[in-house]
Amino acid sequence: MSVNLFAGMSVNLFAGMGSHQSARSETNTWFSPPDIVDALGGADSFDLDPCSHVDRPWATARQHYTQEDNGLILPWFGRVWLNPPYSIALITKFLGRMAAHDRGVALIFARTETDPFHRFVWGAASGLLFLRGRLNFHYADGSRAAANGGAPSVLIAYGAEDRDILAAAPIDGAFVPLRLNLSMLMPVLLPTWREALADYFAGRSEPVTLAELYRAFADHPKARANQHWRDKLRQVLQRGQFERVDKGLWQRRAAA
After folding, report:
1. The pTM of the whole model exceeds 0.85
2. Which residues make Cβ contacts (< 8 Å) with residue 180, sequence separation at least 6?
3. Which residues contact 111 (CB under 8 A, 6 or more apart)?
4. Distance of alpha carbon 32 from alpha carbon 116, whole angstroms
């Protein structure tokens, strides 16, 4: 939910990075479409919404901080749903807090060129889902606004768990992974077992024993990623490109 957390602040603070106050509206308080939260696991899957409102039409998390609480100074915990006020002054603070917390999903306008986006999204998030079309937010009574928000929106995942949830969410849009774990990149970056063995045999004119191969590949990334790597190595040796010349003794098959 995006609300005015600080009643004493001027309304024009909400005209920055995509305010929820459009030119066609007279309200500063808008609520996230419930189907977005539902597609990410539902309100019960989020532990905290630090930007909620006392008169919210539905829950977005199991616990809510309202404008009276001031979610910028209270502790954040668990999986967070964040739809902050869209002023530059406030979105910078809330996105900075979200990046430091590093667990949950944020919904903001896709102002990808702004300083907060570069600092706390591109440089900190784990994945993005750029939504197709423009969202229609909701009024305090729960009714859907007739006009859309006036700009494209993006869902931002923080942490590996929420990256995977966002990637699989049934929400129309384009998913962009960020901060991929090395384990996710290994299959792409590493050679296949066949390629690794071919490289090893390329510099050897004499047959090689299995014991030598085991020693040579014991610290190889392929072996570290597979506890049954010895079985895999023998399986590859038995397929086409290599031949056994004696018991436990192998060489690369000569080209025809």
Report:
1. no
2. none
3. 17, 18, 117, 151
4. 21
Three-class secondary structure of residue 211 per DSSP: helix
Whether 154 and 128 have beta carbons less than 8 Å apart is answered as yes
Q: Pseudo-torsion of CA 123, 129, 132, 138, nearest 10°?
A: -90
The amino acid present at 198, given as its one-letter code, is A
First CA to last CA distance, the chain:
69
Per-residue model confidence as pLDDT tens digits over 9-64: 332 332 222 333 333 334 456 777 888 999 999 999 999 999 988 878 889 999 99
Contacts of 118 (CB under 8 A, 6+ apart): none
- Please count the CA atoms within 13 angstroms of the CA of 125 that sit on its side-chain side: 27
Q: How far is CA 57 from CA 32, 33, 68, 104, 158, in A?
A: 10, 11, 17, 22, 26
Taking the C-alpha atoms of residue 4 and residue 90, their distance in angstroms, rounded to an integer, is 10
Nearest to 105 by CA among 30, 14, 56, 168: 168
